[in-house]
Amino acid sequence: MRDGLPETVAAPAKLNLCLYVGPRREDGLHEIRSLFEPLELADQLRISEAEKDEVTIEGIDAPDLTATALAALREHGWDGPPLRIEVDKRVPVAAGLGGGSADAAAVLRLAMGELEGLRSIAAGIGADVPSQLQPRPCLVAGAGEVIEPAPSPGEHAVVLIPQAEGLATATVYAEADRLGSPRGEAELEAIRRRLRDAVDTRGSPLDYREHLVNDLQPAAISLRPEIDDALSALEKAGAAHAMVTGSGPTAFGLYPTLEEAAAAAAELRGRFPDALATRPLSR
To answer: Is 73's pLDDT higher than 70?
Structure first.
């Protein structure tokens, strides 16, 4: 392996602690304001030199963002050796957890310090990819390309309830457009300021639950009504706050500690076998 290239790279899942949605822009994307945090739950990418570039992902045959990212590095002149990248998927697919974007960002990190313009390359691959080039808590604006680092929050943990079948982000946004009532620019900017003030306290998200809102949640539930069952189950299992992450369909609940989250996940597995406990990625 060429010096500097790692043998394994982690691609952490991304949790949307909130997601406020504005109108559709001329480029077809929506203005958002959000608070992201990376999770310990992560895909693992195994990297090895090969005769030609190759990406394999167990259970996924179609081209995905991992291969797109590697091709983009080549198109922009990265001269790293041909690579075989094997992706061990641990983040549920099309679950609102940014797994595909995380994998793409992990590939782009292979060229960090060797290739300029990685942020621009990331934005060309997908709206969530730039924020995951450096997995850390961040406030996000624009369509996901405007990133403001945020302080690490106080202790909390998460229980995730993924669904057996994913939801396409574009489908959920289209349903949100059909349901109507996007937020205006002035409201989005006021929300950004309130989020900034909240995270600057360095408290747990449980301390500012009033800001933890997902404008895509009604659309996700409209498309997949069973999400409501997962949210109710989380609340009954002691979650201090339960909502949908990103475009869904994954429901999540917030707990003060990992021990409490693990106990809740164990309780929930009787109805939701894929329920799992995790926590924010430590710096």
So the answer is: yes
Are the beta carbons of 153 and 37 closer than 8 angstroms?
yes
Residue 258 backbone phi and psi in degrees, to 5: -65, -35
Q: How far is CA 138 from the centre of its chain?
A: 11
Q: What single-letter amino acid sits at 152?
A: S
Do the beta carbons of residue 230 and residue 253 sit within 8 Å? no
Catalytic residues: 14, 128
Helix axes 258-268, 227-236, angle to 10 degrees: 130
Give the separation between CA 223 and CA 128, rounded to whole angstroms: 22
CA atoms within 13 A on the CB side of 48: 7
- Bridge partners (DSSP) of residue 158 are 254, 278
How do strand 83-88 and strand 146-149 relate by DSSP bridges? unpaired
Eight-class DSSP state of 39: E
Alpha-carbon distance of 112 to 102, in angstroms, equals 15
* pLDDT of res. 149: 95
Provide the pLDDT for residue 110.
96
pTM recorded for the entire structure = 0.93
CA distance linking residue 32 with residue 239, whole number of Å: 26
Average pLDDT, the chain: 94
Beta-bridge mates of residue 87? 45, 57
Q: What CA–CA distance (Å, rounded) separates 40 from 91? A: 10
- Select 8-278's CATH number: 3.20.80.10, 3.30.230.10, 3.40.50.2000, 3.40.50.970: 3.30.230.10
d(CA 111, CA 118): 8
For the chain, first and last CA: distance in Å? 27
Q: What is the 3-state secondary structure (H, E, C) of 182-203?
A: CCCHHHHHHHHHHHHHHHHCCC
